[in-house]
Amino acid sequence: RTCSGTSLRKGGRKLKISQHTQYTCSFCGKTQMKKWATWQQRSQGKMVAGGAWSYSTPSGATVKLAIRCLKELR
């Protein structure tokens, strides 16, 4: 046990930082992706359904890799 929830505050801080960081748009390469209800880039109107706290998830990366491999087979 820690005093006054130190480990909880540290974990919450990590999530808050990753949520409010601007990520690189996969469509145009600008660093303007922000978290609203979904991940959005306001200048182009692009929306991405990513993870709850981060822009991309490990399972999403696996799916992108599988799709790219299938496209190369054609």
Automatic annotation (TrEMBL):
BP-aspect Gene Ontology terms: translation
* GO molecular function terms listed in the Swiss-Prot or TrEMBL record: large ribosomal subunit rRNA binding; structural constituent of ribosome; zinc ion binding
Q: Does the keyword Membrane apply?
A: no
For this UniProt record, the keywords arranged alphabetically read as follows: Metal-binding, Ribonucleoprotein, Ribosomal protein, Zinc, Zinc-finger
List the InterPro entries hit by this protein, alphabetically. Ribosomal_eL37/eL43 (IPR011331), Ribosomal_eL43 (IPR002674), Ribosomal_zn-bd (IPR011332)
**Keyword Kinase: yes or no?**
no
Q: Which GO terms describe its cellular component?
A: cytosolic large ribosomal subunit
Record-linked Pfam families: Ribosomal_L37ae
Q: Report the sequence similarity comment from the record.
A: Belongs to the eukaryotic ribosomal protein eL43 family.
Q: What is this protein called?
A: 60S ribosomal protein L37a
